[in-house]
Known about the structure:
The complex is a heterotrimer of chains A (about 280), B (about 280) and C (about 350).
Chain A: H1 9-36, H2 54-57, H3 70-103, H4 109-117, H5 124-146, H6 157-180, H7 186-193, H8 198-227, H9 242-252, H10 257-282
Helix pairs in contact in A: 1-10, 3-6, 3-8, 3-9, 5-6, 6-8, 7-8
Chain B: H1 2-33, H2 47-54, H3 56-90, H4 93-109, H5 111-122, H6 127-134, H7 148-159, H8 161-172, H9 176-184, H10 189-217, H11 221-226, H12 234-244, H13 248-273, H14 277-280
Helix pairs in contact in B: 2-3, 3-7, 3-8, 3-10, 4-5, 5-7, 8-10, 9-10, 10-13, 12-13
Chain C: E1 3-14, E2 17-28, E3 32-36, H1 43-51, E4 58-63, E5 66-67, E6 78-81, H2 93-103, H3 108-121, H4 137-149, E7 155-159, H5 167-184, E8 187-192, H6 195-201, E9 204-209, E10 212-217, H7 219-224, H8 229-234, E11 239-247, E12 250-253, E13 258-260, E14 270-273, E15 278-280, E16 289-300, E17 307-312, E18 316-321, E19 336-342, E20 347-349
Parallel strand pairs in C: 3-8, 3-9, 6-7, 7-8
Antiparallel strand pairs in C: 1-2, 1-4, 4-5, 9-10, 11-12, 11-14, 12-13, 14-20, 15-19, 16-17, 16-19, 17-18
Helix pairs in contact in C: 2-3, 2-4, 3-4
Amino acid sequence: MIQSLPNSPVYKYGYRLYIALFFAFLLLPLIAISVLAFNDTTSITLPWKGFTLDWFFADTTARKGLFSDADLLQSIWISLQTAFLMAGLSTVVGTIAALLFEQYNFRFKNLLYFFAIAPLVIPGVILGISILLGSTYVGGILDTKFGIDLEIFGPGFWLVVLGQFSFGATYVMLLVAARLKKFDFALEEAALSLKASRLESIWYITIPFLKPAIIGAFVVAFLMSFANFNTTIFLIGSDPTLPVDLYSRIKFSSTPVLNAVSFMIILIITIVATASVFIKKKK
Amino acid sequence: MQDNKKAFYFLLIPVLLWLVMLIILPHVDLFFSSFKPNSGEDTYTLENYLIFFQDKIYWSTFLYTTAYAIGVTLLAFIVSFPVAFYLVKVISPKHAAFLMLMLLIPLWIGELVTIYGWVILLGDKGAINESLIFLGIIDTPITMLYTNFSMIIGLLYMSMLFMIIPIMTTLESLDDAQIEAASDLGASKFTIFKSIVIPHSMPGIINGSIIVFMLVIGDYLAPNILGGKSSLWFTEQIYNQFLSTFNWNQGAAFGFLLLIISSATIWAALRLSGQKLEKVEN
Amino acid sequence: MSNILEIKDMSKFFDDFTAADSVNLSVKEGEFVSILGPSGCGKTTLLRIVAGFLEESRGEVLIKGKNMKSVSPENRPVNIVFQSLALFPMMNVYENVAFGLKRKKLNKQEIEKEVLSMLERVGLQGFEKKKINELSGGQKQRVAIARSLVMKPSILLLDEPLSALDRKLREHMKVELKELQREIGTTFIYITHDQSEALVMSDRVAVMNKGFLEQVDTPQNLYRNPKTAFVAGFVGENNRFEIVRKEDKEIITKSGMRISRPCLEFTPDVMYIRPEAFMLEPSKDMEDIAVMEAEIKTILFDGANTKMSVLVDSREEVLIALQQNAKFQTLKEGDVIKIGVAYDNIKCYKE
């Protein structure tokens, strides 16, 4: 129970033990990955054979470290590009959608809003196959009827970006709309009254107000893209993203280089997340 | 007013492009594709759906997946509720912020990496078995990986955060004085939970359950990597149709069935709790 | 002098709700006009229609003789000081005041000159770099006014800008605002539900009720000769008497009080008498007054504002002002006194 009420020691320590176990459960996989990234063996299991940095730097046939594995580096590079473009596109369109749904009333608004938040409850698999089917269909029509063969409609880099953007924009919209709800619309009217045009008032007043949420939403979209598997798997062409590459390695050829990649991800995410908390606290 | 119209269309057009091209049209296409024959002829047929009902492997997987998804959702609630309550009501906000950070980090690291972590932990020669043998608690490894157990662990791990956060949000709005008042009036802890805390957090529990259910039923990685031969997840059938047998129309029918069962469950949950979809995301 | 604003037979409907009902109002250049009414009376709707954020359903709004129909807010020669002030929190004082001038595409030197002289005018020189959240309530107020005035509007619309301030500061700002308006000569239209703000500052006050302008008049006339029962009840403190019938030359109120000879022409529904209109122990030779006997129930001491509640004819409870002079200092609760009121000061209305 809450602190102001008396609790029996059994209840109190029992509760604490449960919470400790819960967080152990939460962190155990991450710790296991991190530790075994430095294990001097080609197997991903225990026992511990000694410390090595081979899985980061080695370049032999038996042991290919993360920084020597061209395929792995390539898939990381593709994931970074995808995430950057997807986050950029999602941020722009998601912010626009937030402004549209929060500030305007129009016919079919509720219906459109329903579609805008639908990706929250549509499994990623479905989004993936639908977009694959849809783009193949449109691409097919363009090809047979007009003789235009556009690469963007076939599985590949751009289709992955678009597919991830289809749900990325939803999350950006919700994050930005949450801040927009705290916006005093008299500020926009004041700008209009001071002779700003509608778009100027959005640009000079509303967008600066939304900036923290927009930046946060960009980061969220970026991370979502970087980790996405369910939608992406259906849309990739010949160049896999990192999660797709990791998946096939886990299924068919696990070595501790997987731990090395995972360790780097864990490290970067932990640093970014901790930093963001401290920045928030400062404010 | 003209100016306002211009701004409106400026905002409307990109949103329409997004929704029509990437949400509406693809799902309409999914619907129609599911009625096209596998032969590729340009007619409509029910054969994809008939196959689903005739072949036991398909419909039993479908039922198995739905049942397990409901089970995992329930489990996620049981595991998560004490944690959400602890973070909001028991410890100071400062400590809670630190623990929240620990909760969020696995989320951002991504499902694949954390599932890989469980592969390492749960294997016959994994960290848990090795530790237990080393400590002399067991002699031979316990088989945990590639079973329903490991699959449930994976599903629970990747989804429980989405149960914790909505419950925390509703608990934050529960005035401590209500708990104190109930205690003052002689209620036991169990009564307080049953008649004050749980009813108050019901909207959060429903929202969390919807999201968890949707994530679990649509998941692929946990059943595929951690699950065993018997852990057949319905999404795996869809993957097979699309990526192994290249029978897209059959896959579309399966996809559409998955969409129906997840939408129907969400709809039922919302109806039962009298909420609207728009509120789920908050 | 010409009318800078003319509102002719203007109505505004929201679905089946009438927010403004055939409003007619003319404002002269340089005038300070208040629109006074209870919340929900339609005064904010009226202001937003003049500003161009809402469109009138019927009638016309002319500014400087030009019909404003479908002229967007940024193209009207008016500016607003908002109730919430709506200062831009992400900009400092200088940027706030310069915002509108930048939209007018003035060059940098001009903007700087205008902004600095306006800030000086409202007593905020040296505050240019301050953040909005570093300012006091009164300073924010001045920034909001400066931000609008620097645009040199033909009309400045003020939407209850003092309502967020505490009472003391509000009293002070009333005087300051009035003086500022006189000094710069811009037409002010001031929206408020606070009658004291309206009476103190305005040249004329328009009293609005349920979308309808009840009376547009100088503060003095509004107080002394309210044209409708609503104005009598809303502006200033007043005793309201509901009338049941007229007998011969007496009027009988609902609770049975009798009062002689007012309103000879018709039988009113209600009657109003201001607390300060009552005379205590009027001399016998005074003419044209109604005299009644009253028992003092409670004395509500409040310095110069002291009043007492009396029972007239043991029935009707009436509030009367009690001047703080030596003559009546000995009055106490339970005393029975004579009170009189001049017929002129008894205001009768049909409702």
